[in-house]
Design goal:
2 domains; DUF4440 domain-containing protein; globular; alpha+beta; SnoaL-like; NTF2-like_dom_sf; Nuclear Transport Factor 2, Chain: A
Length: 167
């Protein structure tokens, strides 16, 4: 197998490890996925956060306030150019808050985010996150299609689509 194919597979594995750490709520494992300096993140709806300490603090806050989270990644694309890699994907997210007083599971909420994860090859050869940007998808494709059909325009074309929640 060529070096490029190996790099693509290694970046895909690093991307998977990032989401696995998030799902487990494992801040140490998540921290290990990031470069040690000059990092940044944009969480959906948040301003840009720069610096490793502030980025890790942001994830600690998210983990402390999220009882359950699961990512179903779709449209994953990996590109590698030298020691830099770009991963784009759609995050189909299912998350939940604290358990109810009676002990039953808390409410589950679905969301759709498009993400760009930029990786750099570290000195030890491992692929580490350099920057991450997540943007919420605000268009509900089903509503858009219904509106167009009511106006006689037919199904909508172009633009972002998808479901903003889970049924």
């Amino acid at each position: 197998m060529s070096g490029a194919g190996t790099d693509v597979e290694a970046v895909a594995a690093a991307n998977t490890a990032l989401y696995d750490a998030l799902e487990r709520g494992d801040l140490d494992a998540l921290s290990a996925q990031w470069l040690t300096e000059d990092v940044s993140v944009v969480h959906p709806g948040w301003p840009v956060i720069t610096g490793r300490q502030d980025v890790m603090r942001s994830y600690a806050l998210i983990m402390a306030n999220t009882e359950y989270i699961q990512f179903f990644l779709t449209d994953v694309e990996v590109s590698v150019l030298g020691d830099t890699a770009l991963v784009t994907c759609t995050e189909n997210i299912l998350s939940g808050g604290p358990a109810e007083e009676d002990g039953s599971a808390g409410p589950l909420v679905g969301g759709l985010v498009v993400a760009t994860n930029i990786f750099r090859r570290a000195e030890d050869g491992a692929w580490k996150v350099w920057a991450r940007h997540g943007s919420p998808v605000l268009i509900d494709r089903d509503d858009e299609d219904e509106d167009d059909e009511e106006n006689g325009d037919g199904p909508a074309e172009g633009g972002p689509g998808g479901v903003t929640g889970f049924a």
